[in-house]
Design a protein that fits this description.
Blueprint: E1 2-11, E2 20-22, E3 28-35, E4 38-45, E5 51-60, E6 62-66, E7 71-74, E8 78-87, E9 94-104, E10 116-118, E11 126-131, E12 147-150, E13 156-158, E14 163-169, E15 175-176, E16 187-191, E17 197-201, E18 203-208, E19 215-216, E20 221-225, E21 229-230, E22 235-243, E23 249-251, E24 255-258, E25 261-263, E26 271-273
Parallel strand pairs: 10-24, 15-21
Antiparallel strand pairs: 1-9, 2-3, 3-4, 4-8, 5-7, 5-9, 6-8, 11-12, 11-26, 12-22, 13-20, 14-16, 14-19, 16-17, 17-22, 18-20, 22-23, 24-25
Length: 275
Amino acid sequence: MRWAVVLLLMAQLPAAFGGEASDGQNAVRVRRVSTPGYVSLVVENRRAHDVTVTLTIRADNAQVTRIVPETATCGGHSQSEVARISVTDPSKPWRWRYHFHWTRGRMYVQHDSRTHYRLPFVRGQTYRVSQGYNGRLTHQGQDQYAVDFAMPEGTVVCAAREGIVVDLKESSKTGGQDEKYKDECNYVSIAHADGTIGEYHHLKYDGVLVEIGERVTAGQPIALSGNTGYSTFPHLHFGVYSAVDGSHRQSHRVTFIARAGTIPEPLAGKPYTAE
């Protein structure tokens, strides 16, 4: 998930600064704070999880002082000053604009490849992989190492790895075979100890069984599967992600534990039984 905002301002004096710009859900926004001599840009992260923000600034007749690099990670429920802007010559018109993207998770995460994940459903149950790693339908780019499990709506979804619930959505009743439904996906996001985030997508309306901030154990029921969002049939999309920059995430290859043993790569069309 990523969001973008652009703001363009023109002024004669610093006092012309004011207001704020925010993304569509008002979850991560840039706030402008006027002080004598300069204006601060502050990234406000209202989410419970870390986000990675890329903020670019272009200015004419203005000096930009960076407090943090152009791309940086902001902690959950944080406010971070990222830059200061001041006019170079107050007698002349000046202009500046910023453009920012944000995405869920931290940069420079090293996924712990020694960790084995449980299959994300109840022990003893069996479900078929409908799309595995590098799937031609949608598992390319950031979803390269995601796995889809075909399962009826209302199937109990379990945490594949222990962690803390950092984000969720269960308000959507809509889904379909069109990218316009992408934002209609219900999901649960669980942060792991190594900084990665496990994502469970296409959940049933009102089908989330956990709360933000709750610590969950591997194998614990967390949701009911569904068919919301960009989805052609009822299934569960599971992937483990970290941020690359404010616009991009990457998925990580994981090894699952099944009743038949370890699974280094789930194969499309093959059924697997949870241990």
